[in-house]
Amino acid sequence: METDKGNHVRKILQKLQEAYSARDLNQLDEVMNLFLQSDEIELIGIGAKERKGYEWFQGVKAIREIISADWEFWGDVQFDIEGAKISMNGKTAWLSTTGKLIQTKQHDKAMVEFAKMMQSMLNDVDEEGKNADLMIMEATHFGIRRLRERKLGEGYQWPFTLTAVLVKVEDDWKFHTIHWAMPVD
Length: 185
Fold this sequence. Notes:
The structure is a single chain. By secondary structure, the protein is an alpha+beta fold. The protein has two domains: 1-99 and 159-185, Nuclear Transport Factor 2, Chain: A, CATH 3.10.450; 105-153. It has five helices and seven strands, in the order H-H-E-E-H-E-E-E-H-H-E-E. Strands 1, 2, 3, 4, 5, 6 and 7 form a seven-stranded mixed β-sheet that branches. A hairpin with a 2-residue loop joins strand 4 (85-89) and strand 5 (92-102). The longest helix has 21 residues, at 132-152. The protein is globular, with a radius of gyration of 18 Å.
């Protein structure tokens, strides 16, 4: 059973929701105060598959950069705050919830960034060409998915899950780890 203290954690999730809704880069410092100020913090994105790889962000600077990019290029994020399951043990809390990402016009703006990412993938071909086939497939798959997303149009909704670990620092709860996940389609 969730205690009153669980409501404090829910309020932190609500603040993150409000920040993602506002997309105000002038408030990014305030949003970063929701995170533990440590190089240990992590935000694991929907495309992550290996530590220190694509969409696996560690440290305050990296998380700040991805949140800023989310606000600039990603759609509208809506967490199920009331439906979040929150568990606690001492100075540690963890939560799981669902949500949806709603495609907006930001996706059009992101297409240039996606093309740059594809180019970067192709630049990873080694000198001997041993991984050329794999890199061409990865870049093509990535590009086709982005084109498919764009074709689905503004307003299209993707479901996601979010899990997080928070730690209590003095009287405040801070995010330590956040993991976004989307079902494979």
